[in-house]
Amino acid sequence: MTAEEFAVVFANNVRALLAARGWSQAALAAKLDVSQPAVARMLSGNRPPNGATLAAVATVFEVDPCELICRAKTKPPKS
Questions:
Q1: CA angle, 44 as apex, 1 and 25 as ends, to 5°?
Q2: How far is CA 47 from CA 14, 16, 26, 68, 75, in A?
Q3: CA contacts within 13 A on the Cβ side of 42
Q4: H helices within the chain, ranges in order?
Q5: Are the C-beta atoms of residues 29 and 35 closer than 8 Å to each other?
Q6: pTM (global) more than 0.70
Q7: Is 64 exposed, middle or buried (0-12, 13-18, 19+ CB in 10 A)?
Q8: How does pLDDT run across 25-69, given as a tens digit for each residue?
Q9: What gap in Å lies between CA 25 and CA 23, rounded to an integer?
Q10: Is residue 33 within a helix (H) or strand (E), and if so which, with residue range?
Q11: Spacing of C-alpha 64 from chain mean position
């Protein structure tokens, strides 16, 4: 996976967790103690998170960091 792909997968997974919990970017920013624009940059998918960001986001969502950086598994098509 390239750095660009890694950044997009992370952003998509964080967006999905935000939606599942009904949290806004501002709510996530408050939980991470960062600005809302910092969260917006994180969700842009333009650059991969550093280790500290990955760990902090995983902690806030109470998920394993791998859940933030792994692609969603898709079911194979039925024959």
A1: 125
A2: 14, 18, 20, 14, 28
A3: 26
A4: 3-21, 25-32, 36-43, 51-61, 65-69
A5: yes
A6: yes
A7: exposed
A8: 999 999 999 999 999 999 999 988 999 999 999 999 999 999 999
A9: 7
A10: none
A11: 12
